[in-house]
Specification:
alpha+beta; 12 helices; 352 residues; 4-stranded mixed β-sheet
Length: 352
C-alpha cells in the first residue's frame, strides 16, 4: 500500500503537483495558526472542516454575518518584490472590516491559496500574514486550503481569498436605518492604499519607468515598501467604539473610494457633505496623482484618499468617539455631516 501511494505521488509530482511540499507547508504554518486560537474552537481530528462552538447562552438573538474577499492585484506587487508576509494582513482586513460594518464581531476565517507550485516557506509566510491579521482582528483562523495549479499558473504565481463569519445581536445591527440628519461623519485614517486600486498603481509605476526599489524622497522610503504597506485592520477598534458611543453605521472605504462607500451606509432621502480641508492625504496619493497625471475625480473614485473607515455617530457623541479612537492610537476627525434632501455624498473644499 505504501509503495503504491509513493508511486502515485511520484506520478503526480511529475505532473507538477508536489504532495510532500504541501504537507511540509502545512507543518510550517501550524505555529502561525496557533496564534489565532479562540476558546470556542473544537478540534476536528480529520482536518476536513473547522469547528466552532457557538455559546448560545451569551446571546439573546444572535445573527450571523459572513463576508468573502481577496486582495486584488496587490498580490502581483508582493510577488514582484518577493515579500509574502504582509499580503495576508490585507486579506483579513478586506474581510473582517466588511463584517464589522454591520456591528458583527469577527469569529473566524478560512483562507484559500492557489499557486503554480507549493514552496512551503512561501506558503508559510503568506499564512503567517493571515494569522497576524486574524490576531489583530481577534478572530480565529479556523481552516484553509492550498491548491497547486501547475500549467494554469507559473511556479512563482499565487492568489489568495478568504471568507469570514461574525456575530451580532439582532437589535444591535448597525446600518442605514439608524442614520439620521445631523449625524457626524467621523473619518478614520488609512495606513495607505490598503488593497484597492493596484491595477492603476501598476500602470502608473510602469508608465513612469519606476522600479519598486527606487528610493522616493517625498515618500521617505522605497516605492515598493510604501505600496506594500498592509491594510489597517479596524475590527477591534470599531467594536470598541460601538460599545462605548452611539454609533449608527460604519462604512469600509474600499474600491470606489470614500463617496461611493459612504453612500451605501446612508438611508434614502439623506446625503452627506464632507470637507476635504479637514485632512491631508498621505504623500503616496499625491505621488501617484502627479506621476500618473490623474485627475482628482480619478483619484477619489479609485483610492481611499487617506480614509480607511468612516463611522457615523450621533452628533453629540462625536467628541467622545474621537477621544476613544485617539486612546486606541488611531488618527480620526469629523469630516462632515449627514444631510437631508439631496442624496449622495458631496466633497467640498481642497485638501491642505
Amino acid at each position: 500500500m505504501a509503495e503504491g501511494a509513493n508511486t502515485t505521488q511520484a506520478a503526480y509530482a511529475a505532473a507538477g503537483v508536489d504532495i510532500a511540499a504541501g504537507e511540509r507547508a502545512v507543518d510550517l504554518m501550524k505555529r502561525h495558526v496557533a496564534r489565532t486560537r479562540r476558546p470556542e474552537l473544537v478540534t476536528d481530528a480529520s482536518g476536513f472542516a473547522g469547528l466552532f462552538r457557538l455559546d448560545t447562552a451569551k446571546y439573546r438573538a444572535p445573527v450571523l454575518a459572513t463576508s468573502t474577499d481577496g486582495v486584488g492585484t496587490k498580490v502581483l506587487l508582493a510577488q514582484r518584490m518577493d515579500v509574502h508576509d504582509t499580503i495576508g494582513i490585507d486579506l483579513v482586513g478586506m474581510v473582517v472590516d466588511d463584517l464589522v460594518v454591520s456591528g458583527a464581531e469577527p469569529l473566524f476565517m478560512t483562507d484559500y491559496i492557489a499557486c503554480g507550485a507549493v514552496v512551503p516557506e512561501r506558503i508559510a509566510e503568506i499564512v503567517g500574514g493571515i494569522a497576524e491579521g486574524c490576531a489583530q482582528a481577534g478572530c480565529a483562523l479556523i481552516g484553509g486550503e492550498t491548491a497547486e495549479h501547475p500549467g494554469a499558473m507559473r511556479p512563482d504565481e499565487y492568489d489568495l481569498a478568504g471568507a469570514g463569519t461574525g456575530i451580532v445581536e439582532a437589535d444591535r445591527i448597525l446600518g442605514p436605518d439608524r442614520v439620521r440628519e445631523g449625524d457626524a461623519v467621523i473619518a478614520i485614517a488609512s495606513s495607505g492604499l490598503h488593497s484597492n486600486g493596484y491595477s492603476l498603481v501598476r500602470r502608473v509605476v510602469d508608465q513612469a519607468g519606476l522600479e519598486f526599489d527606487t528610493r522616493v524622497p517625498e515618500l521617505g522610503a522605497d516605492l515598493g515598501e510604501v505600496l506594500l504597506t498592509p491594510t489597517r485592520v479596524y475590527a477591534k477598534d470599531c467594536l470598541a467604539l460601538a460599545d462605548e458611543v452611539e454609533v449608527h453605521a460604519f462604512a469600509h472605504i474600499t474600491g470606489g473610494g470614500l463617496a461611493a462607500n459612504l453612500a451605501r451606509s446612508l438611508p434614502e432621502g439623506t446625503g452627506a457633505v464632507l470637507d476635504r480641508r479637514t485632512w491631508t492625504p498621505a504623500p503616496v496619493f499625491g505621488f501617484l496623482a502627479g506621476r500618473g497625471g490623474l485627475s482628482r475625480a480619478d483619484m477619489e473614485a479609485t483610492f481611499n484618499m487617506g480614509v480607511g473607515m468612516a463611522a457615523i455617530t450621533a452628533a453629540d457623541s462625536a467628541d467622545r468617539a474621537l477621544a476613544l479612537l485617539a486612546q486606541r492610537g488611531l488618527d480620526a476627525w469629523v469630516a462632515g455631516t449627514v444631510t437631508a434632501g439631496a442624496e449622495g455624498v458631496r466633497l467640498d473644499g481642497e485638501h491642505p
